[in-house]
Amino acid sequence: QLNMAKKREAFLKEFKEGPLQFKPTYKFDLDSEVYDTSEKKRKPAWTDRILWKVKNLSEVASKEGEFPEEENPISVTLNNYVSHMSYGISDHKPVTGTFKLEMKPLVSDPLVMLNPEGEWSAEHDVLIHYSAAPELPSSAWDWIGLFQVVTFKHVKDYVTYAWVEDDEISSNGNSKQVYMSASEIPKTGEFLLCYYSNNLQSIVGISEPFQV
C-alpha cells in the first residue's frame, strides 16, 4: 500500500525509506511473538515504517539576504532500521531508525574576522575589533557574543553580548570597534568571541581563544 501510494501521491515521492530487513511488525498476539491467532487471523504486515525527506533549500532560498546553494547543505544517511520483537504490550512491534546527519557550512571562509583589543578584565569596559567581508548581509540585529570555551556548545551559551550597531564606537569602512560593558565580564577564564548574523541565522566569525 505504501509503495503504491508513493507512486500515486506527489508529496510522498520524495520520501526515502531503508530496506525492510525485519519481519512484519503487525499483527501480533499481545505479549508474544506469535502472529494473530484470533478468528480474523490478520495477515502479517509491515505497518510500522520510518520515512524521511530532506527539504530542498534551493526551493526556499528566495528571502532577502539568503545565499542559495547549488547543492543541499544537509545530507542524511540511514545507519540502521530495525524492529524490536521483545516488546509485547501492543499488537505492533516498535521500529527504530538511527541516522547520520551532516551539515555543510553556509560559507567556506569566515565572513567576519574579530578579536579582543588590549587586556580584558572585569575592572573596565573592553573593546572588540572586527572587520566584515563586503558580501556579509549585515543587519541591525547582528550581535557579538562572549562565550566561555569549556561550556560553548550552542549559540545561546553566551555569557554576554554586544549589539554591533548600538554598541559601536568607531568605524572605518569594514573595520569597526564595539565596546562591551565591564559589569558583564567574568573575572577569569578562557573565552572567545562570536559574530552572529541575524540574516543568515548563523555564527559567521569566531575569534581565537583568549584569557580574561
Describe this structure as you would to a colleague.
With 212 residues, this protein is mostly beta strands. It has two domains: 1-103, 4-Layer Sandwich (Deoxyribonuclease I, Chain A); 112-211, Sandwich (Immunoglobulin-like). The chain is 3% helix and 32% strand. The chain contains one helix and eleven strands; from the N terminus they run H-E-E-E-E-E-E-E-E-E-E-E. The strands form three sheets. Strands 5, 6, 9, 10 and 11 form a five-stranded antiparallel beta sheet that branches. It has a four-stranded antiparallel beta sheet with strand order 3-4-8-7, with no helix packed on it. It has a two-stranded antiparallel ribbon with strand order 1-2. A hairpin with a 2-residue loop joins strand 7 and strand 8. It is elongated and about 80 Å long. It comes from Vidua chalybeata (Village indigobird).
Distance between the termini: 63 Å
Global shape: elongated
- What's the β-strand tally? 11
**If you consult CATH, what is the topology of the largest domain?**
Deoxyribonuclease I, Chain A
How does the major sheet shape up? 5 strands, antiparallel
- The share of residues in extended strands comes to 25-35%
- The residue fraction in helices comes out at under 10%
Low-confidence stretches: none
Class by SSE composition = mainly beta
**Mean pLDDT level:** 89
CATH architecture of the largest domain: 4-Layer Sandwich
The CATH class label of the largest domain is Alpha Beta
Give me the number of helical elements. 1
InterPro entries: Endo/exonu/phosph_ase_sf, IP5, IPPc, SKICH
GO biological process, one term: negative regulation of phosphatidylinositol 3-kinase/protein kinase B signal transduction
Family: Belongs to the inositol 1,4,5-trisphosphate 5-phosphatase type II family.
Pfam family, one: Exo_endo_phos2
